[in-house]
Design a protein that fits this description.
The structure holds three protein chains of three kinds. Chain A has helices at residues 20-26, 76-92, 107-114, 150-157, 193-196, 218-221, 224-227, and strands at 3-7, 10-14, 50-53, 56-59, 70-72, 131-132, 138-141, 163-166, 173-176, 203-205, 234-235, 243-244. Chain A is of the alpha+beta class. Classes of the chains: A alpha+beta, B alpha/beta, C alpha/beta. The complex binds flavin mononucleotide, iron/sulfur cluster (3 copies) and FE2/S2 (inorganic) cluster.
C-alpha cells in the first residue's frame, strides 16, 4: 500500500520507515541540515531541518513520515529561525572564517549565507577550547566544532569509536577516546569517513593550506540549497598529487 | 544482587564517609591506589560487570573517594568494557561526579532563588571569611571545596546545602563559622550537631494522599485476586493525570499504552528526580509515604506486565537511600515484593541514583541515565511506553502519581475523583516556599485559587508567584484569581512566593542561570540559547541592554520554545517571556543610556590598566 | 542637487576594506557626482561632521575605537558595518580566548629577544579592551556588509542603494565571510 503526504503542496508517496528528510530528498527538495547525513542514523541536534508539519515545528531528519501529513519546508518564520540558529552556532564557537582553511567549503558558512545571515546578533561567547594538533595528518580544532556528532557516528560505524561527546550544556566538547585524550593515540586516519564527514572546519586533513584558492571553492560556485551539502576533496598529505576521495554529497 | 549490601556497605559507610586526601602522604600512595582498586573491583563484581551500572558505580566511587580517580577510570574501563573516553564523558556530564579531588569535605550550596531570598549571599561571604573558600574552588590543603548547585529540595529550610552528600539546612554565618571549625579539625560526622541534618517534612496541610497510611500489602491485596483490566478500568474512571508536571492522562497515555506495547520485558520506573527548583513534595512522600509509592508501582507492574521496577532517586536525596532500601527489604520479607507476590506476581524494585542533572527528570533522559549513560533526551516518538529502558516498553511516573494510584486502589476511583475539578481530578501536593510566613508542604484539591493559596500559607503580600518552577509560569498579582488546575495553571508542585520587594529581574536571572547550568547541550537552540539568555539577564542586571539585544531575544524566545529537542529548552525562555509581558517597564529601564553601548567601558579596560600598573 | 555626505573610518581593522573600496576604480568619478566624502582616510579629514552615511571598517579593540565610534554614531544617519572585523571582531578577535594580561605579558615582557621589557604605559596610549568586540555591541548599526574584505562591487552596491533611498538588500548569493 503506498502512502502519501504533501510537501510544499506536492503529493508524494513514501515507504514506511522514511523520515520527512528522506521523502524530501528523494524528490530533490532541499531542507537545510548540518547534523544529518543519510549514511548515518539521524540524531536531530542542529534543528536546522525543522519544518512545519500541520502547524507544528518538527525535525525533518528524525520525524517519521505519516500518511496525510502536510509539510511546509520553508516560510518566513522558518527562515528567521534558521538564520537565528546559524547565528547561535557562530556565537558559540570561534568562527574566524577569513583565517579558516575550510572557508568556502564549509556547510555552516554556506547555510548562513543561504539563510541571509550577515552578522550574529547574539553575544559572541569566545570560548576557550583545546586544539588537538597531535595527529600527523588530522587536525581537530574544537573552536569550530558545532557538536553535530557526525564524526562520532561515522567512527562508530567504522568500528573505531574514536570520538564521543563529553560534558554537559555549553561545556560539552568533542572528546577523543584514548587514554591521553589525544588524536595521536588513536588509529584515526585521514582517509576515515569520521575525518571526512565533518561539515565544518573542526576536523580537517592537514597540509591542505589554500591549495584551492578562495573563490574557487564549493560554495563559491553556487549556494548550498542548489548544490547540496558537499564536502571538499582532500589532497593526500603524503603526496603532492594524489587525492583522497572526498565524502560524497548527502 | 544484594540490595541492602549495595546501599549500606558501599554507598555511605557508617559514619558518613570522609574521603582520604589522595596527596596527603606520598608514601601511602600505593596503599591509596590499592584501596581504589579493591573498591572498584568489588563494585564491578557486585554489579556483575554490567555496563548499564556505570553511573551507579561512579557515584559510589565519588562518595567514597571524593572524586573518580584516574586509576578507577581505567579499572571500570577494563571491567565494564567501556572505552575510557566514554567514562570521562559521563563523569563530565553529571554535576556530582568529578575527575578531580573535591576535598575531604565537599560543600554544595543550593542556589535556588529562594536560597538567595533567605540569605545565601551572606552564607557565601561567610564561607569566604571562615572557610577561605569561594564558590567553584577547592582549598589548597584539600580539606574542603565549595560549589553552587541547583536547588536541593529544601527551599522551606534554606539556605540549604549538601556536605558530602548530606543535606544541611538553615545555613547562616554563625553555622558556617562552626562548620569551618569542624572541617578544620577533620571532625567525623557523628560528632557534628545532629539538628543541622534533621530534615523536616514540613507538612502544613494534609488531604487524601498525606492522610493515608497503609500497612504493607493493603492496597496490593485488594486487587491482585481480580483481573488487571478491572484495575485499569478503575484508573480510567479516576481521570488521574500525571503529577510530574506535564499532566498526561495516566491511564490513556501511559498505562494502557504500555500494557499494549509488545516487548520481551516491561519496566516500571518511579521518577524521583524532583529537579524542578522549588519542589520538595516528592521528598516528603519518600520520607513519609514510601509504602504508598511501592504499592502504586507494584499495581502498575501488575497491570503493564513488568517484573522489574526502578526508583530513580536524585543524588540530592541520597540521604534517604538507606531508609528506602530498608522499606523495600521489609516488603520483600513480608512477601509483598519479590517472587509470587499474592501468589501471582513477580516484581521487585531497585533504587538507582542520579548524580546531579536536572534534565534526567525528563523521562527519556532518565532512561538513558538508568542505562548508565549521559542523560541526553531521546528522539520521541517512540515514547518510553513503547521503547524505553533497554528498548523495552517502560512506564515512567512521578512519585506522587504512584501515591495517587495507591489512593485509588484503596478508596476507589469515585472517591478519589470526588475532589478537584472535572479536568483535574483529586488533590495535589504543593511545595511552597519564598515570601510567606508558613512555607512547607500543602495538599489541596485541584482548583484552588492562588489568592486562597497565599491566604493559607501566609503570603498575602505577594507581588508575584512562580508556579511549577522556573520551567513554569511567573504570575503577576493581577492574575491571582486564577486556579491551580491542568486547565488553568498546571503545576508539578513548586510554588514560590515573591513579595513586593523582590526584583523580577533577579528572579528571572536566577532561573536563566539554572537553565544554562542544566541544559544537557545536545541541541543547538537550548545549548547556546540558554547561555545567551544568561548573558541577556546579566545585561539586564547591569542595565546594559544594547540596541540589538531586545530584537535578538525576541527571536530567541519562540525559537527555543518551538525548536528545542526536549521540555527543558522549550520551557527555559518562559520566565523571560513573562518579564517582557508583565514587566516591560523594567526592561525599558535596563536599556543602556550611552547610545547602544552594551558593555561597561571601564570594566572592559580594567584588565589592561591592571596589567600596565602591576608590572615591575 | 545636494550631495550625499559620506564618512568612512577604520577602527581595529587593516584598511583592507578601504583598499577594496578603491577597486571601484573609475566608477568613483560617477559616484562623486552624487556623494561627497567627509571624514575618511581618503580625504584625510580628521573630524567628522554631520553625515548621511558612515562606513565603519574594523572592530573595537581599545577605548579610543569606542569613543570614535560613539562620535560617528552621533554624526551619521545610517551606519554600515563593513567587513569581518567590524561585524565580529575578525582576525584581531582571535585573541579573545586569551586573557589580555597574558597577551600583553607575552608580547612585551616574556617574548623572545625583547630588550627593556615594559608594557607600554604612556597615558596617551589608548587602553586595550579585554576582548575585541563587534561594533554593534557599542552602537546601533543599520546595515551589515560582511566579507574579508567585501568586494568593491558589494561596497558600491550598498552605498548606491542607500543613496537611492532603497533598503539595501543583500542577496544571499552575494554574502561572503571570507
Ligand atoms: C527537563 C524536564 C525535567 C523533568 N523533571 C521531572 C521530575 O523531576 N520529576 C518528574 O516526575 N517528572 C519530571 N519531568 C516530566 C517527565 O518527563 C515525565 O513527564 C513524568 O515523569 C511522567 O510522570 P507523570 O505522568 O506521573 O507526571 C521532567 C520533564 C522535563 C522536560
Ligand atoms: S568552520 Fe566554517 S564557519 Fe567556522 S570559521 Fe571555518 S569556514 Fe567559518
Ligand atoms: S568535529 Fe565536526 S563532525 Fe565532529 S562533532 Fe564537531 S562539527 Fe561535528
Ligand atoms: S532542549 Fe536542552 S536539555 Fe533538551 S535536549 Fe536540547 S539541549 Fe538538551
Ligand atoms: S539535520 Fe535535522 S536536526 Fe540537524
Amino acid at each position: 500500500m503506498s502512502q502519501v503526504l504533501t510537501i510544499d503542496g506536492k503529493d508524494l508517496a513514501f515507504d514506511s520507515g522514511d523520515t520527512l528528510f528522506d521523502v524530501a530528498q528523494a524528490q530533490g527538495i532541499y531542507i537545510p541540515h548540518l547534523c544529518h547525513h543519510p549514511d548515518y542514523p539521524p540524531q536531530g541536534n542542529c534543528k536546522l531541518c525543522t519544518v512545519d508539519v500541520d502547524g507544528q515545528s518538527k525535525c525533518a531528519c528524525t520525524t517519521q513520515a505519516e500518511t496525510g501529513m502536510s509539510v511546509q519546508t520553508d516560510s518566513t518564520t522558518l527562515t528567521e529561525y534558521r538564520r537565528a540558529l546559524t547565528e547561535l552556532l557562530f556565537s558559540e564557537g570561534n568562527h574566524h572564517c577569513p583565517g579558516c582553511e575550510r572557508s568556502g567549503n564549509c556547510q555552516l558558512q554556506a547555510t548562513a549565507y543561504a539563510q541571509g545571515m550577515t552578522y550574529s546578533s547574539f553575544k559572541l561567547l569566545n570560548p576557550q577550547r583545546q586544539i588537538d594538533a597531535s595527529h600527523p595528518s588530522v587536525l581537530l580544532d574544537r573552536d569550530r566544532c558545532i557538536l553535530c556528532g557526525l564524526c562520532v557516528r561515522a567512527s562508530a560505524q567504522e568500528g573505531k569509536h574514536i570520538f564521543t561527546i563529553a560534558g554537559r550544556g555549553s561545556d560539552s566538547t568533542l572528546a577523543v577516546n584514548s587514554d591521553s585524550g589525544l588524536l595521536a593515540d588513536t588509529n584515526l586516519s585521514a582517509e576515515d569517513r569520521a575525518t571526512q564527514v565533518c561539515p565544518v572546519g573542526a576536523l580537517m586533513v592537514k597540509q591542505q593550506g589554500f591549495r584551492i584558492p578562495i573563490g574557487q571553492r564549493i560554495y563559491d560556485q553556487g549556494t548550498i540549497d542548489d548544490l547540496g551539502n558537499r564536502r571538499p576533496q582532500y589532497h593526500s598529505p603524503k603526496s603532492k598529487t594524489a587525492r583522497i576521495a572526498g565524502d560524497s554529497d548527502d | 544482587m544484594d540490595h541492602v549490601q549495595l546501599a549500606k556497605g558501599l554507598l555511605l559507610a557508617d559514619p558518613w564517609t570522609i574521603p582520604p586526601d589522595p596527596q596527603q602522604a606520598p608514601d601511602q600512595a600505593a596503599e591509596y591506589n590499592q584501596q581504589v582498586t579493591r573498591f572498584c573491583t568489588d563494585l564491578c563484581n557486585l554489579h556483575n560487570q554490567n555496563p548499564n551500572q556505570l553511573l551507579q558505580i561512579l557515584i559510589r566511587i565519588q562518595y567514597r573517594f571524593g572524586w573518580v580517580p584516574y586509576a578507577a577510570q581505567s579499572i571500570l574501563s577494563n571491567d565494564l568494557k567501556i572505552a575510557i573516553g566514554e567514562i570521562r564523558a559521563v563523569i563530565a556530564f553529571y554535576s556530582f561526579l568529578s575527575s578531580e579531588f573535591q576535598g575531604r569535605y565537599r560543600i554544595l550550596l543550593s542556589s535556588n532563588i529562594t536560597d538567595y531570598m533567605l540569605g545565601l549571599d551572606n552564607v557565601i561571604t561567610a564561607c569566604q571569611t571562615h572557610l577561605k573558600l569561594s564558590p567553584g574552588t577547592v582549598r589548597e590543603d584539600f580539606k574542603c571545596s565549595l560549589e553552587l548547585t541547583s536547588c536541593t529540595g529544601l527551599c522551606d529550610q534554606g539556605p540549604a546545602g549538601l556536605i558530602n552528600g548530606y543535606p544541611i539546612k538553615h545555613l547562616d554565618e554563625h553555622r558556617i563559622c562552626e562548620l569551618a571549625q569542624l572541617v578544620d579539625a577533620g571532625t567525623p560526622f557523628n560528632q557534628w550537631p545532629e539538628e543541622w541534618f534533621e530534615i523536616d517534612c514540613g507538612i502544613k496541610q494534609s488531604g487524601t494522599l498525606l492522610n493515608t497510611h497503609i500497612q504493607p500489602g493493603n492496597a496490593i491485596s485488594k486487587w491482585l485476586d481480580k483481573e488487571p483490566e478491572t484495575f485499569l478500568e478503575e484508573m480510567k474512571q479516576s481521570g488521574l493525570r500525571g503529577r510530574g508536571g506535564a499532566g498526561f492522562n495516566t491511564y490513556e497515555k501511559l498505562w494502557a499504552a504500555c500494557r499494549n506495547a509488545s516487548g520481551d520485558q516491561h519496566y516500571v520506573v518511579c521518577n524521583a528526580d524532583e529537579g524542578e527548583p522549588g519542589t520538595f513534595k516528592d521528598r516528603v512522600l519518600l520520607q513519609n509515604h514510601f509504602q504508598q509509592v511501592i504499592e502504586g508501582m507494584t499495581l502498575a507492574a501488575w497491570v503493564v506486565g513488568a517484573k522489574q521496577g526502578f526508583v530513580y532517586l536524585r543524588a540530592e536525596y541520597a540521604f534517604l537511600l538507606d531508609q528506602l532500601n530498608q522499606q523495600l527489604e521489609r516488603y520483600r520479607q513480608k512477601g509483598w515484593l519479590g517472587k509470587a507476590i499474592g501468589g501471582c506476581l513477580d516484581f521487585d524494585i531497585q533504587i538507582h541514583m542520579g548524580a546531579g542533572a536536572y534534565v534526567c527528570g525528563e523521562e527519556s533522559a532518565l532512561i538513558e541515565s538508568l542505562e548508565g549513560k549521559r542523560g541526553i533526551p531521546r528522539v520521541r516518538p517512540p515514547f518510553p511506553v513503547e521503547c524505553g529502558y533497554l528498548q523495552q516498553p517502560t512506564l515512567v511516573n512521578n512519585v506522587e502519581t504512584f501515591a495517587c494510584v495507591t489512593a485509588i486502589a484503596m478508596a476507589g476511583a469515585e472517591q478519589f475523583a470526588q475532589c478537584g475539578t472535572v479536568k483535574s481530578s483529586g488533590s495535589k501536593i504543593h511545595s511552597i516556599s519564598g515570601d510567606c510566613s508558613r512555607p512547607g508542604v500543602y495538599e489541596w484539591p485541584w482548583g484552588i485559587s492562588i489568592r486562597e493559596v497565599l491566604h493559607q500559607c501566609g503570603g498575602e503580600n505577594a507581588a508575584a508567584v512562580q508556579i511549577g518552577g522556573p520551567a513554569g509560569i511567573l504570575l503577576p498579582k493581577s492574575q491571582f484569581d486564577r486556579t491551580l488546575a491542568f486547565e488553568d495553571l498546571p503545576t508539578g508542585g513548586s510554588l514560590m512566593v515573591f513579595g513586593n520587594h523582590r526584583s523580577p529581574i533577579d528572579i528571572v536571572s536566577n532561573f536563566a542561570q539554572f537553565f544554562a547550568h542544566e541544559s544537557c547541550g545536545f541541541c543547538a537552540p537550548c545549548r547556546v540559547g540558554c547561555r545567551q539568555m544568561q548573558h541577556f539577564c546579566q545585561q539586564l542586571q547591569d542595565r546594559q541592554i544594547g540596541s540589538s539585544d531586545l530584537e535578538s531575544m525576541k527571536t530567541l524566545i519562540p525559537l527555543m520554545t518551538q525548536l528545542s529537542h526536549c521540555g527543558l529548552g522549550k520551557t527555559a525562555p518562559l520566565a523571560i517571556q513573562a518579564l517582557f509581558e508583565h514587566w516591560p517597564e523594567l526592561i525599558k529601564e535596563a536599556e543602556t543610556t550611552t547610545d547602544g553601548l552594551s558593555f561597561d567601558l571601564q570594566k572592559a579596560v580594567a584588565d589592561t590598566i591592571a596589567a600596565t600598573e602591576l608590572q615591575p | 542637487m545636494t550631495k550625499v555626505r559620506v564618512s568612512t573610518c577604520s577602527l581595529a581593522g587593516c584598511f583592507g576594506c578601504h583598499m577594496s573600496f578603491l577597486d571601484v576604480d573609475e566608477r568613483l568619478v560617477d559616484l562623486l557626482e552624487r556623494v561627497e566624502f567627509n571624514r575618511s582616510p581618503l580625504t584625510d579629514i580628521k573630524a567628522c561632521e554631520s553625515c548621511d552615511i558612515g562606513f565603519i571598517e574594523g572592530g573595537l579593540c581599545n577605548q579610543e575605537n569606542v569613543e570614535v565610534l560613539l562620535q560617528f554614531r552621533k554624526q551619521c544617519r545610517y551606519l554600515v558595518a563593513v567587513g569581518a572585523c567590524a561585524i565580529n571582531g575578525g582576525i584581531p578577535a582571535m585573541r579573545n580566548s586569551i586573557p589580555i594580561s597574558d597577551c600583553l605579558e607575552e608580547v612585551y615582557l616574556n617574548g623572545k629577544g625583547l630588550a627593556n621589557q615594559l608594557i607600554p604605559n604612556d597615558p596617551e596610549l589608548p587602553r586595550l579592551l579585554n576582548q575585541v568586540r563587534p561594533i554593534h555591541e557599542a552602537v546601533k548599526i543599520d546595515y551589515f556588509l560582511p566579507g574579508c574584505p567585501p568586494s568593491a562591487d558589494e561596497i558600491l552596491n550598498m552605498l548606491q542603494q542607500i543613496v537611492d533611498g532603497n533598503e539595501p538588500s543583500t542577496s544571499h548569493k552575494n554574502i561572503r565571510f571570507d
